[in-house]
Amino acid sequence: MARGILATRRHPEDVWAWTWQVRGWLGLQKDGSQDPQRVPHLAFSRDQDAGTYAKGEQSRARPEAPRTSISQCLRNPPRDRRTAVSDYRTSVSAMAPKKPPCLPSLLLPLLTLLLPRADTRSFVVDRDNDRFLLDGVAFRYVSGSLHYFRVPRVLWADRLFKMRMSGLNAVQFYVPWNYHEPEPGVYNFHGSRDLIAFLNEAAIANLLVILRPGPYICAEWDMGGLPAWLLRKPKIHLRTSDPDFLAAVDSWFKVLLPKIHPWLYHNGGNIISIQVENEYGSYRACDFNYMRHLAGLFRAILGDEILLFTTDGPEGLKCGSLEGLYTTVDFGPGLLSKSEEWSWGGGPSAMMFIFHLCLLSAADNMTKIFTLLRKYEPHGPLVNSEYYTGWLDYWGQNHSTRSVHSVTKGLENMLKLGASVNMYMFHGGTNFGYWNGADEKGRFLPITTSYDYDAPISEAGDPTPKLFALRDVISKFQEIPLGPLPPPSPKMMLGPLTLHLDGDLLAFLNYLCPQGPIYSILPMTFEAVKQDHGFVLYRTYLSNTVSEPTRFWVPNNGVHDRAYVMVDGVFHGVLERNMKHKLFLTGQVGAKLDVLLESMGRLSFGSNTSDFKGLIEPPVLGQTILTRWLMFPLKVDKLVKWWFPLQLLKRSHPQTPSGPTFYSTMFAILGSSGDTFLYLPGWTKGQVWINGFNLGRYWTKRGPQQTLYVPRPLLYPRGALNKITLLELENAPPQPQVQFLDRPILNSTLHRTYVYSLSAEVQSDPEPMQLSGH
């Protein structure tokens, strides 16, 4: 025990770990309160309306407000079950306890020495010595990014534990506004959106938190985390001091920030710092009044003690930094920031080109970037807030990778400089549903469903060679937890399975849009009909007979993002933003023209303008502008989840289906279940659901991603039937079959997983891992 105590004094992060053990022995929960099951007289719950503590629920998963902390018990033991929050500040003499003391008296001296009191917990910048101080002791964080919104809730603990066992002492993550406020004034913090539960899981894993609440987050997430309903005001200027935008931001943060206030480090929580906005220097506006407004709002709600910071690439520091906010930088092993890499793909300006070449030709590029950072933050620790372990993927391009050597070498060089580093990403996860973002590099580039990112922890949560190499580097600079990482999760193979035709999409229109269509002379955007994502069907009728093939097109690149065109139910082809602009159609007068519009994700980075979806301009057939449109906002997810299981529709099916069509089948798992990867050979493009859960987009024909990750918790185990549903938007294969594989195919290449021994002393030789990249 004595040796353990001495060790924790050398390493303050281990003090924190050891204190959690002490809290467990004493029946204390992770939020500092005592476990009601062990100490019933301290069973408190928060009355949100009255703002007082009252006898009631004893949930440990979602502490909405700070409960009785150790330091509070040391100073002010509660009088009874209804001790008010304000009573914690009254004098000890006025609070004679009617119940037994909070802690066994024999352990009070030990706890006084080992556990920092609430009013002494601090995370600050020591500018004189260019370092952080955690509770007055020199501290450097080695952090990793993980996005709770890309990982099923039941897997949060697994991913966070693996991060801690990798040697990290902090986790960094965004809070996507659009994930929590789907409609103005409607908030969702339940299930996989339970932010407080994720903070609690991070505390259990002994990880500090670096929080990035936006309001804009990028993250390759739809619209950079901004809610699409903002665009219902078409003239709004996003990420500026536009009054309409600020009013929405203020309303959101007045809900979000009070929730996280109890979790700030000096309040007994695990949040050590909070980022204001995100890479704002890469945005065209450069509106300092907007940044000052955000900083003032954060301070007004969160107080002056929490460390607020900004993050930008080297070229964005001028517009992204702000006095009073700590300035950090981001760049990857190639010494490019995210914004530079985005700009490079789209044809950078001459200045950016010269800057790029200068960085690559310098002998010590990392030092140059940190030297540039010193112009904006002369004193304090060096911080790289986004050190890229890999990169994102676009549909139609190669799967991105970064070598183990380049990533580990860059990390080691930064740690030698004494820098604090966050690795983006440490675990990427998945863009389930419709949540992927997009970029514009000369053309519109939607991001794949997989957000594997070539990260140290794979999309399926498995350790990779990159993780073990990074762990070795980290161990040179700070102690890492003892013991092996968990082995890769069990994987499952199944199939092939033959899918059955349910019917074309148009046959289900009454179920997809039960409220009926919206009529307008000119087509309306998704935002105007309050459809945030997915699909809208546009319908009109030909006013003249078109006997010869006639050009059908939408001016000004007005298809956002893909249009599936049908005449009297017959599929004629696709129009695509920036890619394919015209089709040739024929039809009789009165023929029904249907155009199914698909949103492929809104622009999520940098100088993104308001990315409206749908038919942005009225289509033209020959020389005729088509008018008198019916818009059907489609609720596809509700149909798949509720109507299909009831089999409400029975009808004959077309012999040779084409165009948007539903397929499905049932299957049982006869053996043991596990994580798996859905492979759709021969299929073209569409959306897939497993047991009603929207797994995401597939685009087998374009790639690079060929499989979709299926977490084991989505599957019903042995003895129950599972259902898979596909909406194929173009053409199904002659044999409509799918398979479940035990390995992903992210670039037409099987990714093999290392297998490690459970022994701490002996590790088996790893199997080779195939990777492909640029």
TrEMBL record:
Keywords: Glycoprotein, Glycosidase, Hydrolase, Signal. Residues 132-476 form the Glycoside hydrolase 35 catalytic domain. Residues 44-82 are annotated as: Disordered. One of its GO terms (biological process) is carbohydrate metabolic process. Pfam families: BetaGal_ABD_1, BetaGal_gal-bd, Glyco_hydro_35. Residues 660-717 form the Beta-galactosidase galactose-binding domain. Residues 523-635 form the Beta-galactosidase 1-like first all-beta domain. This is Galactosidase beta 1 like. It comes from Equus asinus (Donkey).
